[in-house]
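Person: At home tonight, work slowly through the protein below, taking as long as you need, and write a paragraph about the fold.
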Amino acid sequence: MSAKHPGLAVVIPTLDAAATLADTLAALAAGDRLLHEIVVADGGSSDATIALATIGGARVVAAPRGRGRQLAAGARATSAEWLLFVHADTRLGAGWANEAAAFMNTGSTATGNEAAAAFHFALDDADPAARRLEAAVAWRCRVLGLPYGDQGLLLSREFYDRLGGFRPWPLMEDVDLVRRIGRRRLRLLESLALTSAARYRHGYLRRSARNLSCLGLYFLGLPPTWLARLYG
């Protein structure tokens, strides 16, 4: 890898993400002054994902399928000093770039460059059930210090490398890394990470119960490959 480049690289893992990727990329335009590049780590899409990524100004790298592997591959492909991991169905809201810049300038120095930040989870659905889920996620983040990958994750490359990066897991790769970061080294930002509610089309209660079951089984030590089958 070449010498580190001052600035921020956004890493987005994709797999047949054409329905949402263009909006995700468009929302990143507010961070032009921060961005070194956007890297899309694609796991073998068969739709228009790669074409949309290119049109949207991203550099596409091929990666073995699996979110943990793709995130790790995207991080390896860039020389930026700061990394922001964002899901392909998440749009960062107004103000994200200013908050990210403030964190990059001052947020990490208080703990010796060992800190990370996540955004405020929100869903693009007017259903009251979405508001209840958002409140539950806010509680989980505030009390347990456990944001998920659909809230974005911002940290320096130095810290990322020191943590060992993402493990090559198909599921729970975000929880695993956040646990290694630790609650005291996490900052929750105010800007929204507005995420598609499409995964809840069969019901918020059903999907939330599945997510919670997977989390519980993960803490009990069930292998991530098994959890991925349960998650669906």
User: Anything to note?
Assistant: The beta strands are 5-14, 35-42, 59-62, 80-85, 90-92, 116-123, 153-156, 186-195. Residues 5-201 form a domain with the Spore Coat Polysaccharide Biosynthesis Protein SpsA; Chain A fold (CATH 3.90.550.10). Residues 128-144 form the longest helix (17 residues). Residues 63 and 70 are 5 Å apart (CA to CA).
